[in-house]
Amino acid sequence: MNVLPMEREAEIDQIRRELAMLQSRYALYRRLAAFWRMFFIMLTPPLIIGAAIVAFRLFRFDILYGLFFVGGLLLVISVLVWVIRSSELRWIDFAVLLLAGIFHPDFFSADPGERRRVRSVAEMVEQQIADREQRLSVLQR
């Protein structure tokens, strides 16, 4: 009867190793998300200044060209903001997007089961961490 507690301890050790590995991977994804966030924060001001310079030069050349450029730019920016806000992507999701498309295992499935489709690898790792923590809490009782 000592076999069962030994198997249980082996499973607990295995889950702890997997949990440590998943948490270190998630920490890497968080650092990558922080990098991308800072990259876009640093990239935005020069792009805005460049667009303003182009708009000013177009207005000096022809007012209609300038209005067309500014209107098109505002349209593109508003569509981008709307798409990003409606997709509810977080920085960590953007850093490790899951661009599987039709190659995703659940793409053609009518009922992907109790799990919804994940937006990114980071969300998949979050689910795996939650599963391991739940299993570990059940085993440690």
Brief overview, please?
It is built from four helices and no strands. With 141 residues, it is mainly alpha-helical.
Describe the structure.
The chain is mostly helical and 141 residues long. It has one domain. Helix content is 77%, strand content 0%. The protein has 4 helices and no strands. Helix 1 runs antiparallel to helix 2 and helix 1 packs antiparallel against helix 4. The longest helix has 59 residues. The protein is rod-shaped. The chain starts with a helix and ends with a helix.
How many angstroms does the end-to-end distance come to? 18 Å
Strand content: under 5%
Number of strands: 0
SSE sequence, one letter per element: HHHH
Shape: rod-shaped
Structural class: mainly alpha
Overall pLDDT score: 82
Report the helical percentage. Answer: over 70%
- Give the oligomeric state of the chains in this entry, treating copies of one chain as homo and distinct chains as hetero: single chain
Number of helices: 4
Characterize the largest beta sheet: strand count, sense, and whether it forms a barrel.
Answer: none
Low-confidence stretches: none
Gyration radius (Cα, Å) is 24 Å
- Count of the separate structural domains: 1
